[in-house]
Write a structure and sequence with these properties.
Keywords: Membrane, Transmembrane, Transmembrane helix. By secondary structure, the protein is mainly α. 78% of the residues lie in helices and 7% in strands. The chain has a domain of 52 residues. It contains four helices and four strands. A two-stranded antiparallel ribbon has the order 1-2. A two-stranded antiparallel sheet has the order 3-4.
Length: 179
């Protein structure tokens, strides 16, 4: 019985030694393992939050960029449409102004030419105007270079137009001197 008791004491002592040796290890290993697991969980949580924030920022940036692109494209298209419409309006207005100016110039030139033609006497044929040329000093130079008939002809027309008009019937067969 003493041997059995000794064996039991040895066994209990060995068990106590094993327990006493493993308890400090368990007291160190378990908290460290729990801390490692907690740190890993916290890191994973932080990474998840950071990834979600980055994802939200990226989505917001993409939406903002798309809206800006849409706004810029819309403004560009509207500007092009406005410029084209303005060019069309300006073109129509400019064309109308050009047409009005051309018509006014033609009317003024035409009426001036018609007024000149209506004042000229004719050479016997009513539809053919005679040549009327204004001399520099109302016929003084023309009278020096022409015969006496030219002087009479110049006197005849100098009171109205101060010019020499070539009429074969009244002034002989000489031509006008020039302006």
């Amino acid at each position: 019985a003493a041997a059995a008791g000794g064996i039991a004491v040895v066994a209990c002592t060995a068990a106590a030694v094993v327990v006493l040796e493993t308890v400090p290890v368990m007291l160190v290993v378990v908290p460290v393992a729990v801390l490692v697991v907690l740190v890993v969980l916290v890191v994973l949580l932080v990474v998840r939050v950071v990834l979600e924030v980055v994802l939200v920022v990226v989505v917001v940036l993409v939406v903002v960029v798309m809206l800006l692109v849409v706004v810029v494209l819309t403004v560009a298209v509207l500007l092009v449409v406005v410029v084209v419409l303005m060019l069309l309006v300006v073109e129509v207005v400019v064309l109308r102004v050009i047409v009005v100016v051309v018509v006014v110039v033609l009317v003024v030139v035409g009426s001036h030419g018609a007024a000149k033609r209506s004042r000229l006497p004719t050479m016997g044929n009513a539809s053919t105007p005679t040549i009327a040329v204004r001399t520099m000093t109302c016929g003084v130079q023309a009278a020096r270079r022409r015969p006496a008939g030219a002087k009479a002809c110049l006197r005849l027309y100098s009171s109205t137009s101060c010019s020499f008009i070539s009429r074969p019937s009244a002034c002989g067969s000489f031509r006008h001197l020039g302006a």
